[in-house]
Structure formats: C-alpha cells, structure tokens
Specification:
five-stranded mixed sheet; 145 residues; 5 strands; 8 helices; alpha/beta
C-alpha cells in the first residue's frame, strides 16, 4: 500500500481514537499531501465534516489548477456530499480504500470523467465493519439514514 493511503488510514484511526467515525482522507498534489482530514462530525458537532470535506478544509484555498492536478485518497467510497466537492474542485483521480461497507457516488464521479480506483483494503474494511457493528446509530446518522 502506498504512503498516501497509509496517511488516509492514519487519519481514520485518529478519528476513531477521538470518539468519531473512522474515515480519513488526504489530497495529494505533485507527490505531497496538501490537505489531510478525518470525519469530525462527532468531535466538532458538525453536519458536514466528513473525512474528504475535512481534507478540503485543511488544504485551504487553492487555485483551481492545483485541484485539477491533485488526487484524493479516501478510506471509504465518497458520499454524495463529498463527491460533489470532488466534482466542484475538479479533482481528476480518487483512490478509495473500500466500498464494501458503503457504496458512495462512484458511478457519478466516473460519469463526470473522474478516475476512481477501489483497493478493497483489508484495514479500511475492518475499521468500518467494526465501527458499524459497535455504533450503528451513529453510522446511520452520518450517512443520513
């Protein structure tokens, strides 16, 4: 596994350690991480701070050209909100840790020209399976169920 997915997994593990949902993300431009984040809805009492949204927030303001040249790594298939941000900012490649526990808007992303690669990483799958089993109500809240 490459260093960038490892960084996204580290973010997910940090979120879990903080009492949140174990989903992490990093945004990579020219071989370096420019934004990293994890789901902080619980920790911040936020309606929108999914891992990808937190990574965008932590990347700060970037020129559109930077996002068009960037790749986003996420431990879980991106939901509609996060996929919308990916499309809005013109990210062209998304590397997904897994989509077995949750299938996000991968078809939408692909239909709009985004390259989506799914790894089915055992660590990512395990983090989410264990979390969903332990905290189903919180997980359902996070995905709007």
């Amino acid at each position: 596994m490459d260093e960038f997915m490892q960084a996204a997994i580290a973010e997910a593990q940090q979120g879990l350690a903080e009492g949140g949902i174990p989903i992490g993300s990093v945004i990579v431009h020219n071989g370096r991480i420019i934004g990293r984040g994890h789901n902080r809805r619980v920790q911040q009492g936020s309606a929108i701070l999914h891992g990808e949204m937190d990574a965008f927030e932590n990347a700060g303001r970037q020129p559109a050209s930077v996002y068009r040249e960037a790749m986003l790594y996420t431990t879980l298939s991106p939901c509609a909100m996060c996929s919308g941000a990916i499309l809005l900012y013109g990210i062209t490649k998304v590397i997904v840790g897994e989509n077995r526990t949750f299938m996000g808007e991968e078809a939408l992303l692909r239909s709009r020209g985004v390259s989506v690669e799914v790894l089915q990483d055992a660590t990512c799958i395990g983090l989410m399976r264990d979390f969903i089993a332990a905290r189903p109500t919180l997980w359902n809240e996070d995905i709007g169920v």
